[in-house]
Design brief:
This protein has 626 residues and is an alpha/beta fold. 22% of the residues lie in helices and 28% in strands.
Length: 626
């Protein structure tokens, strides 16, 4: 028998259930969402009732719902976390996304486990370990290249997931403690203060300042549109969009964009199929450039590049649209070939390099220029200033409306029976249902009209999630049926198919851990192992770890340590890399932000930069052994 097609999953973010439903309407095969607590976006929590509402909607399309339970937990939070796991499972969730291994020591429901990005999977050994302890889906580190991904895929069985769009954490995920160190807000506990987006100055060892007040740790946003086929070839099967704090317009637009791109690949490749049911149509043209982004980079997928950073601003500047030619009271003129609209948002950099924004009250076309009237007369851009549009009012209106339709294709077969008629529906997943109409048969006096009416009435599926792809009439002779009877038969068949689809839906089960327990790749865990509770400590001890330090969030580290490890290298950004200039050495540099001084060290062999500092909240030194 030929091998079954490989499923490609488009995984979209959901801040809440309504956004999750919109993501599925716009083509997501799965959505990930925070539960009532312990998600790595503390501002994006949802009730169990909302999880259930989302799951019920998703499962109609055979789409899945993954609940993020991916913070590290204190001892006093373990019981509540386990309770939430059971509650969301009962509500219909398909998988839990976790990073705290202490959860594996608890009485969890038989729900599939996915390894969070916070588990920092950048090599084969880590991927194999997580697979062997029961994870069925692994999100790989965003820093990996196609070659590294392929090496992991060749020797693992779990579904490999990869971020394809959205904000990039400058540090390896799960390995960043700078927010907690400086503000007390832990990224590993869902409260990242985004310290990396602040402006810094950069000084060399001799005190020379080579950059002032720049966003030196701020990266452009991830965009893997051009690399989807290469990622598939490397072994990625789940394509993840970042953004559990993003608004509904962002989720609609970006999900629709990648749905179109993946469908184009799937339609040309018989070896692949969508991971859920239904085809989407959109009332707008998806365009990732029109919703929040900091510029685009494909990061390290194709090797190191020089344009991954966003030093000027961490905000959304938008697309360049023209140059200011003059201004007057409450208005300015822009030379632009782009059509502008009332309500558009524009931005520009002032003489200090700060990004400012204005809303257009009225836009007037004037012989190759546009006169833009604004209410804020105090910050008009000077002549010669480049103008960007960061809000396309017409586009936003399209997204605010009912902007997508998703329908499951069905084959319809109408046939006569001994005591009447039957309508059978078979959907694109080969799920079948039928309904019967018991009646006296009456031959049609006008066979052509009867056949046309039959096709027309059977095909009226507009109020459902179905659409006809074929209608077969299998009768010995044209029969007359009242329109009301046909409509009732069609409704009964649709209801039967919906019930059959509900009955056929099966949630994935937990992957079994191997026995005896797999050994962890290392025998020691530093504070970067993120062990904050006794159950996590017991888990790692059971898997062969003999030295286990407490997580940074335990506030026991009072020495200067690496608060962040990143492949973003500031020496490289400023052409000071020893690999670029042979006579240079990888000497430390200093990041300066107010009174804070952070030491940068460079590991040229690994091509990594580390940001060193102290934990401002440390209470005492200790390294706790198991």
């Amino acid at each position: 028998m030929p091998a079954s097609p490989s499923k490609l999953e488009l995984l979209a973010p959901a801040r809440n259930a309504d956004i999750g439903i919109a993501a599925i309407r716009h083509g997501a095969d799965a959505v990930y969402i925070g539960g009532p607590a312990f998600g790595a976006r503390s501002a994006a929590g949802n009730t169990v009732a909302d999880i259930e509402r989302l799951a019920n909607f998703a499962h109609r399309y055979s789409a899945q719902v993954f609940v993020a339970l991916n913070t590290i937990l204190r001892d006093d939070e373990l019981e509540a976390a386990a309770r939430i796991a059971h509650e969301v499972y009962a509500a219909g969730a398909d998988a839990l996304i976790i990073q705290d291994m202490g959860l594996l020591e608890l009485d969890l429901p038989p729900i599939a486990l996915h390894a969070s990005t916070q588990t920092d999977i950048r090599d084969l050994a880590k991927a194999q370990f997580l697979e062997r302890v029961g994870f069925s889906q692994l999100v790989l580190a965003r820093e990996l290249s196609l070659k590294q991904i392929a090496e992991i895929a060749a020797q693992t069985e779990a579904t490999l997931e990869f971020f394809i769009h959205g904000a990039l954490c400058v540090s390896y995920s799960g390995q960043c403690t700078i927010s907690h160190a400086l503000t007390g807000r832990s990224a590993n506990r869902g409260e990242c203060a985004q310290t990396c987006r602040l402006p810094y100055s950069l000084a060399t060892p001799d005190g020379t300042v080579i950059a002032t007040n720049k966003h030196l740790l701020s990266l452009k946003d991830n965009d893997q549109t051009a690399n989807l086929q290469a990622l598939i070839d490397a072994g990625i099967r789940s394509f993840k969009i970042e953004g559990r704090l993003k608004d509904i317009a962002y989720v609609k637009n970006i999900t629709a964009h990648y749905r179109r791109e993946l469908d184009r690949i799937i339609d040309a490749s018989p070896g692949f199929t969508r991971a859920s049911a239904g085809r989407c149509s959109f009332a707008f043209m998806p365009d990732p450039g029109k919703t929040f982004n900091r510029g685009a980079t494909d990061y390290f997928v194709n090797g190191r590049r020089s344009d991954i950073s966003s030093f000027d601003t961490p905000k959304f500047a938008g697309a360049a649209i023209g140059i200011v030619v003059c201004h007057g009271p409450g208005h300015f003129d822009v030379m632009s070939t782009s059509p502008l609209n009332n309500g558009d948002g524009i931005s520009f950099f002032d003489e200090h390099g700060e990004l400012l924004g204005l809303r257009i009250n009225r836009a007037e076309a004037r012989n190759g220029t546009w006169r833009l009237h604004v209410s804020d007369n105090s910050s008009l851009p000077a002549a010669g200033t480049e103008i960007f549009r960061n809000l396309d009012h017409a586009f936003e209106k399209q997204l605010a409306a009912d902007s997508a339709e998703r329908r499951i294709g069905v084959r319809m077969r109408f046939a006569e029976t001994a005591d009447g008629f039957m309508l059978q529906l078979t959907d694109e997943e080969n799920i079948r249902a039928e309904a019967h109409l018991i009646c006296t048969k009456e031959a049609a006096t006008n066979s052509e009209r009867a056949a046309a009416t039959l096709h027309q009435q059977l095909g009226k599926l507009g109020a459902t999630i179905l659409t006809p792809v074929a209608i077969e009439i299998d009768t010995s002779t044209p029969w007359y049926l009242p329109t009301a009877a046909l409509n009732a038969l069609r409704r009964k068949a649709v209801e039967a198919l919906e019930a059959a689809r509900h009955q056929a839906y099966s949630r994935p089960r937990r992957r079994s851990a191997i026995d005896p327990p797999a050994r962890y790749p290392d025998s020691a865990l530093s504070y970067l192992g993120n062990v904050l509770n006794v159950k996590a400590r017991a888990f790692y001890a059971r898997h062969g770890v003999t030295l286990i330090d407490a997580a940074f969030e335990a506030d026991l580290e009072d020495r200067e340590v690496a608060l962040m490890t990143t492949k973003h290298c500031l020496r490289y950004s400023f052409n000071l890399c020893p690999k670029q200039v042979s006579h240079l050495r990888p000497e430390p540099m200093t990041l300066i932000q107010g009174e804070e001084r952070l030491l940068l060290r460079f590991d040229c062999k690994k091509c990594e930069m580390q940001v060193f500092g102290k934990n401002n909240r440390a209470i005492k030194p200790a390294a706790i052994s198991a």
